[in-house]
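REQUEST FORM: STRUCTURE PREDICTION
Request ID: SP-0412
Submitted by: Lab K.M.
Chain count: 1
Length (residues): 152
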Amino acid sequence: MVVNLVVFSLVYYQVSWPANQRWHYVLAFATASEVSIMANFFPNDAITFRHLPGHSRPWLVRCIRFHATYLLGTLLQLLLSFSLHLLGCPAVFAQALAIALVTAFNFAFHHIFTYHREREHPLQNLANQRNPMDEAAQEHETDALTSNVTIL
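STATUS: Completed
RESULT:
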């Protein structure tokens, strides 16, 4: 939340964009969102969610899933914050209130999706199962080999 607000404030109030006021808000929002997503991913991946089963996925997959979860949260945050801003709330207050509301959504969705256990592909189960026909054929081959050996 702090990272998002700091980056948002810097971009919104200090960076001059060749865009009207509404687009300036959206550009500041997008920049702050990406910086805060990555700032949240690193410690959450290393500490908060390390014990969950989905942490066994490759780092890039976890990062992409983290972004996907945050994308939903970010869209919800944009809807809330921009609506409040259009209703006359100061930009940083609208952003702070939306962040507070969406934080709970993101945390829950990380448990449900981002770090949920990996599912095996249905065909993987079939590949790992032993085929009784193969075992019978191997026994038959073994019997045939041992009978040939005893004849010699």
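NOTES: DSSP finds six helices and no strands in the chain.
Reviewed by: T.R.
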